[in-house]
Amino acid sequence: MNSKNNNFDQNKDRFFKMADVYDKLVEYLVPNYNFLHDELIKLFPFKKDDQINIIDLGAGSGILLEKILSCYPNASGYWIDYSDDFLKVAKKRLEKLSTRIEFIKTFLEGDWMSKINKKIHIITSMSAIHHLESNEKIALYKNCYNLLEPLGWFFNIDEMKTLNYEAYVNSLKRWYKHGEEIKEKISNDKKEYYHSLKMQLDNWKVRNLDNINVPKTKGDDIHETFTEQINWLNEIGYVNVDLFIKYHLWCLIGGQKDKD
């Protein structure tokens, strides 16, 4: 195994062991976490009772998929992720919705598309795609475009660089500070999880701030600008592409597949 892939595996192992902690504390860790979810769902051009099919890429513990399927009672979803640990947490969280969900354990850059046997109207992702290299991101965006039904939508909420380098650095610093500040906001029944989270946050600081100029490799936090990624979507053929929300490091971008 080459050092590049080894680094990727180590990063994945480090993160996936945090599955339960992440599930308990992510709404504190990611600024405006619930707001980002809510605004994403508001962008869906469907009626509440429509029978639609959703894919959530890098679905983790299933929080976003749970919210979407709760808003659309006739919808079905695909959970797609690589982690055994997250799969266990997600199956527990999504137990009441299990008849409407198919779980597919695979890499985002793998051939998950061949396992999809329904027409897909929405593809979402949050906090996952930034671990892929640039060419893998582009390939994933193309795969999503090809899989979508005409007029279907792809949305990605993720960490992305800003237009200005100093602003990007400040966004990284702000997120680390936010991670320290949440300790006092966490409910008492979840405070036991914070120590593990803080250890991971400190490791994140070393990789992304202390070593900001060290080249990133697969599995790291590989941040491209939101403008680059919007351009990729346009070049692939998505229409109505936009940056719908930006809050420091966090961006919601998306695009629609055109009519045939």
Please give the alpha-carbon distance between the first and last residues: 43 Å
How are strands sequenced across the largest beta sheet? Answer: 3-2-1-4-5-7-6
Q: Helices and strands: which structural class?
A: alpha/beta
Helix content: 40-55%
Please tally the helical runs, counting DSSP H or I stretches of 4 or more residues. 9
Radius of gyration: 18 Å
CATH architecture of the domain at 30-162 and 222-256: 3-Layer(aba) Sandwich
Beta-strand percentage range: 15-25%
Mean pLDDT: 92
CATH class category label of the domain at 30-162 and 222-256 = Alpha Beta
Task: Give an overview in words.
This protein is an alpha/beta fold. The protein has a domain at 30-162 and 222-256: 3-Layer(aba) Sandwich (Rossmann fold), CATH 3.40.50.150. Helices cover 43% and strands 20% of the residues. The protein contains nine helices and seven strands, in the order H-H-H-E-H-E-H-E-E-H-E-H-H-H-E-E. It has helices at 3-16, 19-29, 33-42, 63-71, 84-93, 134-147, 165-181, 194-210, 226-236, and strands at residues 53-57, 76-81, 101-105, 120-126, 148-159, 239-247, 250-256. Strands 3-2-1-4-5-7-6 form a seven-stranded mixed sheet, sandwiched between helices. Strand 2 (76-81), helix 5 and strand 3 (101-105) form a beta-alpha-beta unit. Helix 7 (165-181) packs antiparallel against helix 8 (194-210). It starts with a helix and ends with a strand. The model is unreliable at 1-16 (pLDDT under 50).
